[in-house]
Amino acid sequence: xxxxxxxxxxxxxxxxxxxxxxxxxxxxxxxxxxxxxxxxxxxxxxxxxxxxxxxxxxxxxxxxxxxxxxxxxxxxxxxxxxxxxxxxxxxxxxxxxxxxxxxxxxxxxxxxxxxxxxxxxxxxxxxxxxxxxxxxxxxxxxxxxxxxxxxxxxxxxxxxxxxxxxxxxxxxxxxxxxxxxxxxxxxxxxxxxxxxxxx
Length: 199
Ligand SMILES: CC(C)(COP(=O)(O)OP(=O)(O)OC[C@H]1O[C@@H](n2cnc3c(N)ncnc32)[C@H](O)[C@@H]1OP(=O)(O)O)[C@@H](O)C(=O)NCCC(=O)NCCS
Description:
CATH class of the largest domain: Mainly Beta
Bound molecules: coenzyme A
Number of helices: 3
CATH superfamily of the largest domain: Hexapeptide repeat proteins
Helix content: 10-25%
Oligomer: single chain
């Protein structure tokens, strides 16, 4: 599939490698603020020249801009762009797992039986999402984090590197779980601080 990446900064460049590893063709980047390199132009311009019936889209905006990521995803899919799920060939995804559109599963991540990874969720390298867990839409699971069995994480949550969420625990939406934090039945993580919009 010929893919555009929305965004052109650090996370977008990382996704470029993922797009190639999966076997898609990267056409270029969309950026409403920056130009140069492989940036094709702003979304409005690119939409005219690279229409949704011929190109797919990947959201390359990182976890500092949760709300913008989701808004852009909704707009682009509303315009007709398909956002494929990107699973790195070195990830393990159980055949019973469900990966919704726009989800990204990076190298050496484990997505176990009957897991659901929501739209636009990102499972970073080495993260382990154990059986029957649900990762909400637009949620980031950082490197080495572990979601034990039957965990449910809401939408737009940041799960820090190496964090552990114990079995059967439900985490609300818009939460920030620190690196190495252990989340049990009695500990709801802090609310994620929303950052101002920016480039
Ligand atoms: C590493 C860490 C434990 C350091 O904590 P600390 O030294 O006590 O510092 P703070 O609690 O002031 O937090 C520092 C950063 O954490 C993030 N952070 C902490 N609490 C947050 C919250 N409730 N909502 C959003 N971001 C938060 C912010 O990025 C903050 O950076 P800022 O100062 O630019 O806003 C903590 O910041 C953390 O867990 N960060 C995530 C690291 C990670 O998992 N990275 C993986 C990326 S793939």
